[in-house]
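To close the section, here is one more complete example, presented without commentary so you can practise reading it yourself. The ligand is iron/sulfur cluster.
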Amino acid sequence: MTKPDVTDIVRPTLVPPNGATKVLLHSCCAPCSGEVMEAMLASGIDYTIFFYNPNIHPVREYLLRKEENVRFAEKHGVAFVDADYDKDNWFARAKGMEWEPERGARCTMCFDMRFERTALYAHEHGFPVITSSLGISRWKNMAQINDCGVRAAGRYPDVVYWDYNWRKGGGSARMIEISKREQFYQQEYCGCVYSLRDTNLHRRNQGRDAIAIGTQYYGRPAPDETSGT
Ligand code: SF4
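Output:
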């Protein structure tokens, strides 16, 4: 039996908080935001992507993730705000938290920083609702992300954080299907230099090679499978 194309999937009609029709979507990368984007498009929600991820290291990885997201936004005709890559501020805020585990205090700081800028932009540009693709990944703690989103939006009386669970109703599965369909670049670590270090340590303990940035794409064979090396 042929699997249905994800674009044919019937989704429930989504309604943002207070019936708003304009949303600012903080996007961390194309794989995570693909389903969020298509779900909002299917509901006729007017939204803009806000790409603010100064955590991503090194710059080559940052550009790969951003360009993939730009490509998908252009395909759907969605507005894309390319915000600062102010990594020096990110490193300053991460100081002293270099050895925090994932989902710990450093990640709370990282989500706070990204949501703070998103909420500020929403406030300054008339977006009544913000949301994010961050929570769709099963590797993330959704409660931690939502706390940060609510905290950031709480700074402005005219901005609300939409804590919609993008994983539900098959969202997680569609995220992977869309990534394969679009052959998105597939990052192999969360994003910051510390997550790169820890993922490589883990891989080394398993006898695996270190991450080779820019080599993995959803739906494509791994480089060593094609080259035979
Ligand atoms: S592990 Fe991910 S969420 Fe946590 S600080 Fe690093 S980039 Fe941010």
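Once you have examined the tokens, check your reading against these statements. Residues 29 and 81 are 13 Å apart (CA to CA). The pocket of iron/sulfur cluster is lined by residues 55, 102, 106-107, 110, 190-192, 194-195 (CB under 6 Å).
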